Amino acid sequence: MSEKNLTIRDIARLSGVSKSTVSRIISNTGYVKEATREKVENVINELGYTPNVSAKELSLSRSDTIGIFIGDISNQYFQEILRGAESVISDSSFFPFICLAGTEKRQKLYIEELMKRRVAGVIFSSSFIYDEEAISALVNSTKAISVQTDIKGIPNIDIDNYSAAYSIGRLIAGNGHKKIGYIDSYNTIHSLSERLRGFRDALKDSGLNEDSLIYTVTDSNYLAFDAARDLLKDRSITAIQCANDHISSNVYSVINEMGLKIPDDVSLSGFDGLPLNDLIQPKLTSVKQPLYDMGQMAAKKLIELIETGETGKEDLILDYTLIEGQSVLKK
Amino acid sequence: MSEKNLTIRDIARLSGVSKSTVSRIISNTGYVKEATREKVENVINELGYTPNVSAKELSLSRSDTIGIFIGDISNQYFQEILRGAESVISDSSFFPFICLAGTEKRQKLYIEELMKRRVAGVIFSSSFIYDEEAISALVNSTKAISVQTDIKGIPNIDIDNYSAAYSIGRLIAGNGHKKIGYIDSYNTIHSLSERLRGFRDALKDSGLNEDSLIYTVTDSNYLAFDAARDLLKDRSITAIQCANDHISSNVYSVINEMGLKIPDDVSLSGFDGLPLNDLIQPKLTSVKQPLYDMGQMAAKKLIELIETGETGKEDLILDYTLIEGQSVLKK
DNA sequence: TTGTACGCGTTATCAC
DNA sequence: GTGATAACGCGTACAA
Questions:
Q1: Is strand C in 7 Å reach of the CB of A281?
Q2: Distance CA A208, CA B109 (A)
Q3: Using a CB-CB distance cutoff of 8 angstroms, which residues of chain A are in contact with residue B90?
Q4: pLDDT at residue A98 greater than cutoff 80
Q5: What is the 3 state secondary structure string of B154-202?
Q6: What is the pLDDT of residues B157-201, one digit of tens each?
Q7: Rounded to a whole number, what is the distance in Å from the CA of B153 to chain A's nearest CA?
């Protein structure tokens, strides 16, 4: 059975060698005679010795931990990015340290902890940054990268939000809708304003005037129930575009609750292409972002930055896919 | 700007005191003159000094980290438990270390890491344990608790699965269904076998014979598509009960895909009461488990164990709620 | 190929 | 109140 608090010294003593030899065997570095290695490894296995990470990190003045800073874990959007990033990191020589930074208090806590742990790098994915100063201090003390998140001075992984939103706007207008509700997110990040800009331009280029877009936003809880109910009161609105699929799934619930039919009574479309869209009937028109890939890409790029020692400034833009479902009526 | 590798010694030197004094101030322990404290704190803030966790842990021979060992993060079931556990831990003096242990490789990696980090405790929530020996070693080296998970020798948080499944079985049979498909999970944990047992007994007590339950299981990917298609070929089956809502949501997709109507063509019911059920039309009949609470309870109980030094053996059973939606036809 | 000695940054135990 | 000093467990020159 594994006893507690075994140290490298115990192993050394019990196998009749010095600490350094044990260290060499554990970290698999330097020359060690095969016979010695076997002897020591036997002792290690028998006693169930496990090296102490804190001591190792302290000794090396370095940690191989990478922080993954996630905004809201109950949102599938962030889950996908997290899964992608984690998969790459847990498959590397680094170690993922997941931070569920969904509230102001948690952001503070986790940022502090990441600093205290001297992490090798951080991946940010959050639609809101509460304390820019703290983030800035963290970013300055380590390597960092973001996924669709606004943080100054670090590379960002994203898609071309303007162009994606433009496409879906053209699609909806092209289907003959003339009065279109738009439910934006309460959060104010660049990718969201780009989507709105792209959507607006699409309507304009389709010959619709400015009044054709009825703009609303979700409340601070990041839900969309009230916004949706407001829009649905105006029966001249024939289509609703949501800034992301977290919102569109909530709007879907409201529409069902009110006994309305999609797309006959109202058209619905979103942005993200989350897995939960599979539960929506009829199939939702949306823009699919490669979220898992974006997470993976962020992790790969970050590891590269750590290993090369470079800082990296250039953003990476990945491809999106327009998904045409049956949720937007052709008039 | 925060410079790297500042130590307690630098702060001491620059504020004209000794390391010990700085340490006292940081850890807020022992007597320090107010004037000294202010002086030192100013230096700390100006330089942006952050204490080094590894050194602290090493010095104390103790870590205040609690591991949260989660089976499958893309399953909302685990998300709820994770969120509950994290909320309690991040609000305590301990720190959450989240392990996405969904694959055999990852379980090995994370268990090893938890041991290396000398964590204060671990919360297990996973429907599969790949290496019982490794888990056992970890459990023996620290405090541990589980949520609806089979690990020997530690307390488990659960509901009365037998009774819950019995209730839903009586409900379905009471609605006149005589041939009922049951889709079990591929995973083999105690709570699942209890559900099956309870459901079986309910049908028996409703006067149905053994042949009335058509048993199938999901495949190793934990999906349910094939199992559902198989069941749906037999048009004499009028209702399908799923062992959990991860399965029922997949079955819902299959039913829609095949153009069948719930509950007219087939009834569907599940187990868990996940948030994503809100997207299912009509409202799904299911058993709601207090998953978030179970996570919270696990964390609270674990912290208690850590602080009292006790091991704890007694399981905790929480209440469930039978949710009667419109997805089971009354015949 | 192996052993010795020092340092990593912090806390705790003593003295003062 | 405050300051030396010895741990904590490990890696790594430098010797041997």
A1: no
A2: 56
A3: 100, 106, 109
A4: yes
A5: CCEEEECHHHHHHHHHHHHHHCCCCCEEEEECCCCCHHHHHHHHHHHHH
A6: 999 999 999 999 999 999 999 999 999 999 889 999 999 999 999
A7: 15
User: Who's near B327: CB < 8 A, 6+ residues apart?
Assistant: B262, B263, B267, B268, B269, B280, B282, B283, B284, B285
Cis peptide before B96 (omega within 30 of 0): no
Distance CA A180, CA A61 (A): 57
Percent of chain B with pLDDT over 90: 92
Q: In which residue are the tokens 């699929």 written? A: A245
SS3 for A156? strand
pLDDT at A257: 93
pLDDT value of residue A220: 79
In this prediction, residue B223 carries a pLDDT of 83
Q: Per the structure block, which two tokens stand in for B271?
A: 């187990």
What is the separation, in whole angstroms, between the first and last Cα of chain B? 72
Q: Show which residues sit with Cβ under 7 A of nucleic chain D.
A: A 5, 7-9, 19-20, 23-24, 26-27, 29, 51-52, 55-56, 58-60; B 16-21, 24, 30-33, 35-37, 55, 58-59, 61
Structural domains in chain B? Answer: 3-60 (1.10.260.40), 161-289 (3.40.50.2300)
CA distance A243 to chain B (A): 19
Are A96 and B96 within 8 A, CB to CB? no
**A33 vs A36: CA distance, rounded Å:** 5
CA–CA distances in Å: residue A214 to residues A199, A201, B331: 12, 14, 46
Q: Is the model's pLDDT at A67 over the cut of 80? A: yes
Q: What is the pTM of this model?
A: 0.95
**Contact B181/B237 with Cβ under 8 angstroms?**
yes
Are A36 and A23 contacting, i.e. CB atoms less than 8 angstroms apart? Answer: no
Instruction: Give the mean pLDDT of chain B.
Output: 95
Instruction: Compute φ and ψ for A196, nearest 5 degrees.
Output: -60, -45
Please give the share of chain A, as a percent, with pLDDT higher than 70: 99
Nucleotide nearest A19, from its CA to each C1'? C3
**Residues 6+ away with beta carbon under 8 Å from B261:** none
| A199 contacts A212 by C-beta, under 8 angstroms | no
Q: How far is the CA of B21 from the C1' of C13 (A)?
A: 14
For residue A79, which of B293, B100, B81 has the smallest C-alpha distance?
A: B100
- Give the CA B117 to C1' C12 distance in Å: 22
> Which of B7, B13, B3 has its CA nearest to residue B26?
B7
CA A261 centroid distance within chain: 33
The pLDDT of residue A4 is 63
How many whole angstroms separate alpha carbon B109 and alpha carbon A75? 26
Residue A1: band (very low, low, confident or very high) from pLDDT cuts 50, 70, 90: very low
Answer for the pair B120, B65: CB distance below 8 angstroms, yes or no: yes
Q: How many CB contacts within 8 angstroms connect chain A with chain B?
A: 104
Question: Is the pLDDT at A80 greater than 70, yes or no?
Answer: yes
Is residue B1 scored above 50 in pLDDT?
no
